[in-house]
Amino acid sequence: MADSSAEGTTAEASIRLLEDYTARDFFLATENATLLGSGVAAALTDPDEIRLSQRVATALGDGIAPIAVGALPFDSAEGTPGRMVLPRRTRRAGPMHPAVDALPRRRVAPPTNARPVPEPRRHADAVARAVAALRDRGLRKVVLARALDVEFGGGVSAEAILHNLVKDNPGGYTFAAGLPGGRALVGSSPELLLSRRGHRVVSLPHAGSLPRSADPVTDTENGKALLSSRKDHIEHAVLAEAVVETLRPFCRKLDVPEMPELVSTPTMWHLRTKITGELVDRDVTALRLAAALHPTPAICGTPTGLARELVTELEPFERGYYAGTVGWVNAEGDGEWAVSIRCAEVGNSALRLYAGGGIVPESDPWAELEETSAKFATLLRAMGLPREWLAEL
Ligand SMILES: C=C(O[C@@H]1C=C(C(=O)O)C=C[C@H]1O)C(=O)O
């Protein structure tokens, strides 16, 4: 029988969860709570995400465990199926912050080798081709990503990276999801795809980005520039419209602010819209809603099918669980699903980092390349590497 415990809201309780995390587990720290799922009472994989959500609801209804956790890939047609686990043991505690600030950072040994995929110049070329394709094929937006393969002669610890990510990102959805073969998807995303609690649903779509700067004057200027950038508002509007359209049939009431707000992570400025709604049918679970929303134009594009084709055509790697979603759902159907960005797939002695950005007809290839470099910084920082390290590759 699966075991579940609420371990209180004390700092010690949440820190114990982080300290007990191992790379096979599921971990999620948000502003409000910390969750650790370990062991496998049941595992479900399915390339059809709606069917997966139904199978998970059935398993939860059977009482196998009180909660299911896991990850959906960017595109299950690539051969990476959605993967959900009903953990043998689920532990919950209060938020990690600010208590985690007092813990020392963990050291990650420096990499022995690193290789951008594709070469940076080729990513800029792909963006230019994407801009032309938007026009020729009638797309409003496509999201193009690049990857960075990093090797560590002496091994790399997902636990240490997660620890530093939690410390660095108090407002983030900081996650780790165990993958087959002892690998783990580890990251800290600013973006909530969907949360459901009772009738209330919330989505926090993000699109439109500029890097933060260590210089306070440049930093403030970047924030202001983003808030008044026509190109970024277009990029954002395409996303917010798509999320609203998908949620509308499920909701009796939707609250959508007219304008996005400016938000920040330690490495990026973003435009974000907070969409809240009231569900018509309580039987529609958080995972079912996440499956309906995914892939949003935050990580794919509009129209979805054409954008997905363009991504396959222009990116020389498979995204796997990057640009998918990670989260949990319980027997009541409540849950929380974050967009799996600002993350890396971590193995024993190597990891692959990912970063992407939305392309619209007004996009500039070199600015888009810069944006992906800035987005890598979330993980680089957790690995103890300065942003300049990337420029040397
Ligand atoms: C695709 C990523 O980020 C997404 C793309 C954004 C953009 O294009 O402005 C902003 C936030 C995210 O929705 C990523 O970080 O890899």
From TrEMBL:
Keywords: Isomerase. Signal peptide: none annotated. It comes from Saccharomonospora marina XMU15. It comes from the Bacteria. The keyword Membrane does not apply. The lineage of its organism: Bacteria, Bacillati, Actinomycetota, Actinomycetes, Pseudonocardiales. Belongs to the isochorismate synthase family. Gene3D superfamilies: Anthranilate synthase. GO terms for molecular function: isochorismate synthase activity. This is isochorismate synthase.
